[in-house]
Design a protein that fits this description.
It is built from 2 helices and 9 strands, in the order E-H-H-E-E-E-E-E-E-E-E.
């Protein structure tokens, strides 16, 4: 498992307060126009993320779990009380994401406009 630069981007604390900036970062990562969901959610163990989701904001210092992206390689972001930081994880074409445990996340979806 890997946390490669092309799939995972750390988020600075000042960026967390700016929804527009978060959407810009997700767009830079994915090459697509994305809109972030209004609220963060608590993931459910073994849930597969909907195919309309192209990126995920992950609060690493949340409940025990992981956000795992499957494709040619497996990308994994671990969450838990001893983890630190926030990242955006990109989902590329042909990849899908499964949640393990109960990570705190916000989803980026393709813009309808």
């Amino acid at each position: 498992m890997s946390n490669g630069d092309s799939h995972v981007r750390p988020i600075k604390s000042e960026e967390m307060q700016d929804t527009t900036r978060l959407e810009e970062i997700a767009a830079e990562l994915t090459g697509e126009s994305l809109v972030i969901d209004g609220n963060e959610i608590l993931g459910r163990n073994f849930d597969q993320v909907d195919a309309s989701v192209r990126a995920i904001l992950v609060k690493k210092n949340s409940a025990q779990g992981a956000v795992r992206v499957f494709g040619k390689e497996v990308w994994n972001v671990v969450t838990g009380p001893t983890e630190e930081g926030v990242v955006i994880v990109r989902l590329g074409e042909g990849e899908y994401c499964r949640l393990l445990g109960t990570p705190t996340i916000r989803l980026f979806r393709r813009s309808s406009s």
